[in-house]
Task: inverse folding
């Protein structure tokens, strides 16, 4: 069987119109612009407002933009994977809802929940289908309505997260470009440090769980900081060694946008030139599965065909991973 390389051929993105600044957030919880900027590096975050609006609304808009930019008809898409921890509902999958909204009818679709690493997990899954030759056009979406699971009276969590979606098209190519390698990892023992307690089968929703604020994100910041820096740096070093890459060989490092101090500490451990590091956390906050595709969207005009990229993430679960790729096109 012929082996194909899977390359990204286009990007789409969607961000809600409403922007919550640090000053506005400071009216809800005891914080300030200075405190948030110095510790997290976020100036603002986009928030999806409107009754009945969910993750699929942002995901569908990002996919519509992607299809237009890649001159792809909805019926040409073979598969759609949505990475999210904030699905519209428990069932059906948000990926199914996105397909319906954009008119994709000839594809199978499903969700992946690996928290902040979800996009890398989904991208790696999609790459395998492209490489096998069984699928020609796969859309991978990273989308989150994190505002739906954030307690805005919690000073430790509320400044961090925002809403948004990014989508990429993955297609086969015979050129030596695209996704070269990936390393994905998980450690379930870390789950107790970052989780949403209620809403699943072990702790179903009830008046008691709502009153106890158990449907919101809980995290232990110090533990997460140390684990994120360690694992994102180590897995990036591992994939570079595996592919005989030196730091100077890289054109771009694309880290999950969790916290500016995590990004800085990780890049310092890797000894990467900061000019090669994609950073947009100040504009969007942590959009969880959306951060990496939103980085690629923001930096698309600066990435050249053949550029070497390392994508790296860490999230609840614990989950973490890294992808090494060579960029597939020059932006028009």
Result:
């Amino acid at each position: 069987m012929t082996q194909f390389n899977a390359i990204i051929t286009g990007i789409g993105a969607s961000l809600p119109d409403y922007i919550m600044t640090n000053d506005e957030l400071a009216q809800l919880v005891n914080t300030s612009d200075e405190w948030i900027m110095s510790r997290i590096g976020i100036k603002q975050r986009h928030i999806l407002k409107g009754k009945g609006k969910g993750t699929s609304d942002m995901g569908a808009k990002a996919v519509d933009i992607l299809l237009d930019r890649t001159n792809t008809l909805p019926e040409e898409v073979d598969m759609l994977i949505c990475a999210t921890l904030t699905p519209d509902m428990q069932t059906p999958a948000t990926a199914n809802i996105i397909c319906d909204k954009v008119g994709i009818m000839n594809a199978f679709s499903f969700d992946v929940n690996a928290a902040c690493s979800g996009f890398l997990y989904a991208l790696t899954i999609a790459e395998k289908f492209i490489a096998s030759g069984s699928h020609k056009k796969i859309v991978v979406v990273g989308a989150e309505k994190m505002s739906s699971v954030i307690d805005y009276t919690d000073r430790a969590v509320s400044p961090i997260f925002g809403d948004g979606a990014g989508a990429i098209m993955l297609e086969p190519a015979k050129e030596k470009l695209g996704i070269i390698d990936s390393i994905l990892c998980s450690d379930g023992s870390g789950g107790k440090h970052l989780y949403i307690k209620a809403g699943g089968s072990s702790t179903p929703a009830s008046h008691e769980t709502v009153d106890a604020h158990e449907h919101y994100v809980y995290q232990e910041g110090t533990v997460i900081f140390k684990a994120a820096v360690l694992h994102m740096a180590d897995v990036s070093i591992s994939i570079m060694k595996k592919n005989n890459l030196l730091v100077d060989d890289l054109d771009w490092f694309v880290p999950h946008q969790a916290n500016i101090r995590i990004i800085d500490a990780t890049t310092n451990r890797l000894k990467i030139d900061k000019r090669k590091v994609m950073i947009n956390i100040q504009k969007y906050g942590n959009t969880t599965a959306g951060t990496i595709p939103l980085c690629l969207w923001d930096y698309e005009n600066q990435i050249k065909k053949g550029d070497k990229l390392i994508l790296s993430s860490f999230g609840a679960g614990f989950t973490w991973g890294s992808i090494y790729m060579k960029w597939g096109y020059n932006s028009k």
Q: What stands out?
A: The longest strand covers residues 163-173.
